[in-house]
Design a protein that fits this description.
It is a single chain. The chain is 45% helix and 14% strand. It is α/β, with parallel strands linked by helices. A seven-stranded mixed beta sheet has the order 1-4-3-2-5-6-7, sandwiched between helices. Helix 7 packs parallel to helix 9. It starts with a helix and ends with a helix.
Length: 333
Amino acid sequence: MTDAQQAGANIAFWLLLALGFAGLWLHGKYTRRKLTPVEDGPADAPYAVYTREFDVELRADQIPAKLRDISPDWTKGYQQRDNELWDHWWDQSGQLFAKLKADEFSIRAKLAGIIGAAEASEPVFVTLLVDQSGSMKGEPIWHTAAVVKLLSGILAELGAGVEVLGFSTAGWHGGYPGQRWRAARRPKYPGRTCALLHIIYAATEDRGLSPEAWRAMLHPDILRENVDGEALLWAAGRMRALPEGRKYLVILSDGASVDDLTLYNNGPSYLERHLETVIGELQRADDIVLGAVGLGVAVDHYYEISAKAESLEEIHLALADVMEQMSRAGREQ
């Protein structure tokens, strides 16, 4: 081996050794800082929010333009770089809507009976609140959006005031609140450690879900995590700002409240306990009739009025069933 070859070999050896030590250091750093889930705090501990600064409320016409700016997901590679997937979901939901539309007579008749059950002089308001968590990706959101498009239009044609709302979180892994919490040396039990994303797809004056809002609902970058309790409070607050009338709030959800960082920081039942508290408060207030459709899951352990859509093809039937139950409950109030 020449002197030049020996020198090159020595450099390569020391470079590999340095890289090895760097790898061990990074592994140790990651291991030390890896999140360890905490246990639940006291059951009566008040619900808290680490920061509301990054919570976002958007209109349908702000999607997708605003999605890139409300979280760090774009820089981390967690957002779509083209519209191919969005276009595919839109096409699939359109095909499903066409099938539902061809057989809408029975649903229309049932909803007409529900809306007509209220006194003619009393306005009827319906809010459809859609869970847009990551587990809704693909077929669940195709079907749900098609059903919401169909039923919101029928309800508006029958004279009801209809709002269509969606809820998710602004960013994975806590988004900007998660970054702030880490920078603050990760204080324990910080409360909700994510940014909420609430979306208004249709207000009562919109007469149902427009094609543009329907397409916006299908954008893949909306689907993150779900904080159901605060979403219900938001939707109920909007309903209470409407004129007096009979008010029905229906949530469509495929599972329990989940935000991983919040649950790691506060215990596995933190969001569920808050959801149960909110449901209890709304039911006791008695000014809004609350119901739920479980998308493939039973939700009757949370909601007094509910129905389970056994399959995605039955969401519209389950929603009509819940509306019928809510109408009966409203007349009994």
